[in-house]
What we know:
about 35% helix
Amino acid sequence: MSVFDRVESNVRSYCRSWPVVFTTANGSTIRDRAGNEYLDFFAGAGALNYGHNHPVLKDALLEYVASDSVTHSLDMHTAAKEAFLETLSSVILEPRRLDYKVMFPGPTGTNAVEAALKLARKVTGREHIVSFTNAFHGMTLGSLSVTGNSMKRSGAGVPLHFGTSMPYCNYLDEGSSLHVLESLLGNSGSGLDHPAAVIVETVQGEGGINLATATWLRRLAALCRRHDILLILDDIQMGIGRTGPFFSFEAAGIVPDIVTMSKSLSGYGLPLAITMFRSDLDVWEPGEHNGTFRGNNPAFVTATAALDRFWRDDALTTDVMRKGEIVETHLAALAGTSASPHADERGRGLIWGLSFADGGTASKVCAEAFDHGLLVETSGPEGEVVKLMPPLTIADDELVRGLGILADATRDVASPDAILATGSTR
C-alpha cells in the first residue's frame, strides 16, 4: 500500500480520478513521477487562472522569500499587505467606482462566505439567508447552509438552519424563478422570514455550469433593493477573469453589497481570501471576526504581481473571450455529432460544461481523457457535466489540443444519444 492509502483519510477525492504522483508543473502542463505530461483543464478548481508557476509571479515570490521579509502577520500592517491594498484599489476598485472596504477573513473561500453571512446578519439584525438551487458556497456550517448539494449538506451532521433555497435562473424558467421569491416576500403567510441577504453565483461551477443571464441578475439586484435585502455575490471561482472581466458580475451592470473572492486571487495557488463590502456596512468591532492565517504575505506578493501584470488593461479579458469562442465552437461541433440535433454546450469566457444523461458517462469521459493526457473533472448534482476550466493564459494550440482529446474521449465513451440538449445561456 502507498503512504496515501496507509495514512491519508478516505475523504481524499481528486487523487482517485487521477491516480498518479504529480511532481512538476509549468503553465498549462503538469507532470507525474513517470514523466507523463497532462494538459490541465482543471486549474486547481479555479485557483490557477494564470497557470502553474507563472514566471512573473514566481520571481516576485522568490525575491520576497529570499529577502527574509515577513511571512506570517495576523492582521498587522506589512509592506506586502500595503502594496496589495494599494494595487487592488488603484487597478481594480477605483476604475470600476466600487467603494468597497476589504476584509481578510481567513485563507479560504468558505472563510470569505462565513464572514459575509455574519456581516449581513450583524448589519440587518436578521438571521435568514436566501440562496439558490444547485449553489455551492463552501464546506463549513454557515456555507453549507446556503449550499444546495444534498451529499455535501448531509456531511454537516447537524441541522443547517436559517437558509432557504430558491430556484436559480432557468431552474424552472427565467421568468418564474424570481417571481417565486418575490411572491413569498410579499405574502405574510408564506413562512419566509425577511432575509438578511441573498447569496448568488453568476455561474454555478460546482452546480453544473449553470448560467444566470444578465437580465435575471439585474432583476435580482432590484428585488433586493426593493425589499432592503443585502446582495452577496460569491465570485470565488468565477471571478479574477474566469468569465472574462475581473468580476463576473460586471457584464450584468450590477453592484453587489458584498463580494467574496479567493481561489485565483493570489494568482499562484497560495491561500488568500477577501470579503469586500460597501463602506457603510463596515460595522465590525476590532477583533470581532479574526483568524490566525488571514495575513498571508507571500500570497499578497503574488496577488499584487498578478494584478499589476494582468489587470492594468483589458487585454486578458479580450483574450479570454476570444478563447471562449474557440471552446464554444469545438463543443458545439462535438455536441452536434450526437443523435439529438439540438444538443448544445453551456459556458462563458473560459468556464464551460458538456452535459450527459448521467454521471457515469461524464466520469468515464473524464477517465478516458486522463488516460490520453488531459485533466478534466465533473460537476453538477449527479456529476453529469464535464467541466472545462483551463488556465486563462493557455496557448491556443494547447487549448485546441485539449479540446481534441476531450472530443476523442467523448466519442469513445458516449453513446450517440448520451449528450443532452442543454441550451447555451449567455
